[in-house]
Queue: 2 jobs
Job 1
Amino acid sequence: MTIALLTGASGFIAGHVLKILLEKGYTVKATVRSQSKADYLKGLYPADAKLSFAIVEDIAAPNAFDEAVKGVDVVVHTASPFHFKVTDPVNDLLDPAIKGTTSILHATKNFAPQVKRVIITSSFAAIINGAKGDWPEHTYSEADWNPVTWEEAIGTNPATTYRASKTFAEKTAWDFVEKEKPNFTITTINPPLVWGPMIHDVTPETVNTSNANVWALVNGSQATIPATPTPAWVDVRNVAEAHVNALETPAAENQRYFIVAGKYSYKEVSDIVLKNFPELTGKVPTEGVISSKKLYDVDNSKSKKDLGIEYISLEQSVVDLTKQLVAWV
């Protein structure tokens, strides 16, 4: 019986990680920020599910995970903010991402010496070089790192701050392993924009940042097709699968994985929605920013080879998400 600690279990990606872990027979200790979030997740599963909870109100607080890690065999760390509502770059994004990662790694080393594997949710944000823009001659892979500086991170661009938070958090993790020589290896999972069906507790007002882009197309609030600023995407179920497969794959030790299905445009998304949900005609925009520019490419071959990921298509992902969203229209 393997006991897995899943941090940030009430999140979009983590909800799917939790589902897979329980289906595969893991005993799961899940960290959440409040008892109400624990109660919601508990209600999704049978009473005899091998699921318990630890309340961690602030992942950036000193020693936040010291108690939670005790007695577990593996750690999946997904807890980190993803939003662009930034008033204080350090307190809103940088500290929670960086200190949360530091806290879970120190806690695991100090209080769970039996742990051999830690999986960390990172992001394409830690791979992409924003200064290069479209970069049509380049193919992004795990070999790339975002060169963002701290001075850029604390500037006024929320997207840059978010990308920096993921970059610095991941670099902190790799630095920790190199300097501290813990008993465990780490694996980082680096997805771009993540879409797909939602398991976590969500309402039209609280829909996660990535799915909110599709929700705006479906609910009629987006009058025109928007520009596609970062044209790489993946389905949440593949991201969750990658986390769990990385736990069980020796080849994944001390590796990072770019978990990406391919590229998209919002024009394609709009077309998919209208094709499969004709009742939304008049709400979903058909005119707008249609770009024919050549953009960078993406390479997912390492994740296919090592983790056995078979990527869900853009159409299936958008349709499965929209089936949920239409209930809100």
Job 2
Amino acid sequence: MVDLRVFVADDHAVVRRGLKALIDTEPGMTVVGEAADGQEAVTQVRALLPDVVVMDVSMPDLTGSQATEQIRRECPHVKVLALTVHEDKGYIRQLLTAGASGYVLKRGAPEGLIEAIRVVAAGGVYLDPNIAAKVVGGFIQKSPKDVASKNGELSDRETEVARLTAAGHGNKEIATRLDLSVKTVETYRTRSMDKLGLRSRAELVRYAVQKGWLQEG
């Protein structure tokens, strides 16, 4: 079995060394590169194309959110897992909107980080258990009836595109996975968002959490 290739981005050398030591000792994982700032992270990820980037939120040059957005745009198959000390919902929403597939607190257990890497690498979404209740509570401010379709129920294809989008997959990746053109995926995505009355990926993630889509991988 081929090891998961992980990239570590954090502006503290001690943290990077600790993360590298933790990940490299885990069977089936290896750290293939590291960066001390957001711009360096984007440049190296573009060259190395790892499976997962463990991204600190607060970094110089480009913030974690900015670097995440650029990486997801240029390298849609690369998953990003945010790592931070921040527990504010605003940071979480910002990272999810940028395209991160998960959010782990630095104060969490090492086992949680390893689990999170595996989950996002498999196409899922991971929220640190220490903040999951807060995040999901914020996402589910409306009942399912309140988020009902404006123009009718989603078709099976619209549902699949919406679910994969919420799970962090880009349009090109979804197109390949479903054997569709990118333009068709964009059409399905726009149509599903319009039917659900949603305006951003963060709102789509809320809806996906509510519907249980993210637990389906």
